[in-house]
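Re: folding output
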Amino acid sequence: FFSQFWGFGCYHYHDILSMFGNKLNPRLFIIGFFVGKDSLDDQLAMNIIIEHETNEEYIQSPIFGIKNRIREFLSTSGIVNLIKNSLWNLSWFRHLFNKLEIRNDRIAIYDRENNLYQDLLYSTTFSALDKIREWSNNNNIPILMVLIPDHLQIIDKSIFVQYELNKPQQILIKHLKEIDIQHIELLHDFTNSEKPQELFLREDKHWRAETHHFVAGIIYNYWVNHTTFLGNVKT
């Protein structure tokens, strides 16, 4: 039996498991975690910025407010999107736009040095992952996490020169191993694919149809090649 649910962030994924997991009673749940956004969604879901007193000074700072306003303007302005679509064929413009996008949206998760906001983002996600693992144990239904790379990790690596390109994957994999959740990391497969630049839509981080087939093959190969994991999956 197969069913697909969309979601955003691990707290939402946990809610879906709690509501539908036992009713569906599948052999396995596969959860896709988008490293470029899901930690931010987890933080918003818990209202952690407002409630966490130790971060109140940082959140109320002018820098944080300016970044939020820039991010909102870039994503919602009709004029900005019209200009972007008109100039997108120019490589220098795509690079500039990508740099602005990541620096005004999620660069904190790539900082080489740990900082208060980065620790907050990951600790919030870890808490949600722990809940998912607890649900899996209590219901005897295995979880397979698929770590989906940020599209900019694939199509424009040069913007990460001052940052740590694969830091989100490193941090998440470490925690997934600690709580014993099986996982697949797609950054390596995407980077080493025949045409990495063509995995995504022209002006979007979403996958092309061929990319879905590509990832399905990776998940299938993992399934058939991990006999220990298969032994934990209900027959």
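--- second protein (sequence, then structure) ---
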Amino acid sequence: ETVLDPFSGSCSSLLAAAMVVPSCKSVGIEIVDDSIVNRKDILQDFETRNLQPPLALIKGDCSDLDIRDQAKRFVGKEGFDVILADPPYGRREKIHQHDVPPLIDLVRCIANDLKLDRPLLNKSTGRLVSFVPNSSNESIHDSLPSADDLSKANLEMTSLTEQPLSETLSRWLVVYQSKM
């Protein structure tokens, strides 16, 4: 399988993917520079565990079409099999100046790429798996893509599971599948 982590940070999700499926080909995208996330140390972490390292760790913004196209070139096929997303908690799931949670922004990017016939996610078998942080005074549905956004991205939700982290914070695991 090919795996993309659009918010790769320290690449813990890609490390887990390599442990579960040692032959997976992965690519990470992270917006911050090496002073915050040391890509060299990340690659060394894979090496010391005898795991296949990511094909690329791209410095950039996953909402940028050129960055997403660059990520796809590393796997040499149309769309990733899996997108694993664990958006940054420190920003309460918000990016840039918008007030749009990263998962919603990512689904809109998937829809845009599909509309341009440059699919980020495999059209027939692709899966989007994401963690979504949520505090107890918020509805999880406010952080999830709308039915319209999902339809445009050719996705349907297959599961939504809560993992309580504290009395006030949960992390939800949401899985979407490309519609055949």
